[in-house]
Write a structure and sequence with these properties.
The protein is mostly beta strands. Helices cover 0% and strands 37% of the residues. A 4-stranded antiparallel β-sheet has the order 2-3-4-8, with no helix packed on it. Strands 1-10-9 form a 3-stranded antiparallel β-sheet, with no helix packed on it. A 3-stranded antiparallel β-sheet has the order 5-6-7, with no helix packed on it. Strand 2 and strand 3 form a beta hairpin. Bound molecules: FE2/S2 (inorganic) cluster. FE2/S2 (inorganic) cluster binds next to loops.
């Protein structure tokens, strides 16, 4: 890895609309798990359950575009499976490379439904 490597643009980053999308049920995402969330707009997010708290981030590693939902989750850090870049799922901060933070999205639970504000 090198700082001079180009960052990949995310073609599936959702446009912000301030709407909540219902994306599933809480019981379907066990603690310590991640899931790919595909919105009907074609956009994609990664959703994680960390000790019962849910976090949504872009499902796109800015290094080379791998799915972060498939990454290795340890506490609040997800590590990309391809080359190991790490991100804080609470803030979207890239812990590996500067200027590589990703977007986060608000998640709420209502009657067991998972809703993400996009
Ligand atoms: S694609 Fe290389 S670290 Fe994620």
């Amino acid at each position: 890895m090198s700082l001079s490597e180009p960052r990949a643009p995310n073609p599936k980053r959702p446009l912000r609309t301030n709407r909540f999308f219902t994306v599933g049920r809480l019981e379907d995402l066990p603690e310590g798990a991640g899931a790919i969330i595909e919105l009907d707009t074609g956009a994609e997010l990664a959703l994680f359950n960390v000790a019962g708290c849910l976090y949504a981030i872009e499902n796109f590693c800015p290094h080379r575009g791998a799915s972060l939902a498939d990454g290795e989750l340890c506490d609040h850090t997800v590590a990309c499976l391809l080359h190991g870049w790490q991100f804080d799922v609470r803030t979207g901060a890239c812990l590996t490379e500067p200027e590589s933070d990703i977007e986060t999205y608000e998640v709420v639970i209502e009657n067991g439904d998972i809703k993400i504000k996009v």
